Amino acid sequence: MKIKYTALMLALVLACGTITTSCNSSKTVQNETLTSREVDFSNIGLKYTTPESWQDFTKSNNLYPYSYEEDYSIENIRYNYITPEDWKTVTKESAQNSNFSLNDYLYPICEIVVIQTDNVSKLSDSGLYSTFSSRDLIKENNGVSYYLLYDYVGSTRKMGEDNLDDYEAICNAVSELSSSFVITDFDVASYVEAKYAEKNTVSFSTQTVNGENIDSSIFGNYDLTLFYVWGTYLYPDVDNITEIEKAYEYAKTLGNVNVVAICIDAPDAKLDDSDKATEIVNTAKDILTKDGAQFDVIRLDSNMATFVQDKFKSIPAFTMVDKKGIARGGYYEGAYTGEQYKQFIDAALKSYVTNADTSESSTSSSSASSKS
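The structure corresponding to this sequence follows.
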């Protein structure tokens, strides 16, 4: 789960001198948030009005909303309560300790879940579903369901009586929030595809291990690219380069497919130009030469460092990337044979190139899996 502190949400909390480094911009958005109760998520077909009784708590920084996404949802919007005492602690801790956990100080009030109706069973099976005892389906529209979850089941004993009274008053107004919902149509397929692309685009600007400049625009030269994730420290225990070379030779016969690899322990020179980094690059070149690799092997830049960390638990691994630079069909861990890589290429071509008109709606990414 990745929390997004959006303009709608956390400007009221990211006040100048507290948890933000951009004082002027936060103050501007904060004022806009505090002077309007109207919340506009029309890009996902949702508008609503927050209860008037929440305004005082918003202004005093005791109402703390944020948005995020689960793997199965389009958007989650959670409203939380934070006590005045905890707000002071958060303000202090955020300035002194970047590793503190904000969620430890938040008491959930309610959560709006926007989810494709086909995925509702995943919501029911989630830990989120058991966080609240009341779960109302506000509306189902155009294949999208809008839920409001409330009545938090966790402990509120740390609050103290005065704060508990305020918290209960806020919670009692949730029904006003529910009654204000306005649900409209939106282009679900385009929105889901855009969000998928946002989270699954492979982007880099670096050099190959041979010193040539290269960036992710190379994906646009092919309908499909097998993107292999590798490191020299795997060698010689896992020496799979010859199998990837077989996939590359097969790709060349197809003409519209490429193979690119990344060596994750060989950092981009802009990140690390130390003797140790140079030694790793030379090791990579030696291994690739020994195994007869002809495909491009790139060095790790900051974008790819984040991507690899987010998408893979172990290497070697790979994913298939379309000409827009978007990973398709899942993230696969483990070493495969050249023949198996060919089968992955053929399957991806069939799903995302042969059926190009429908492939953009096929955005569900499978969980990372390892070869058994």
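The radius of gyration is 25 Å.
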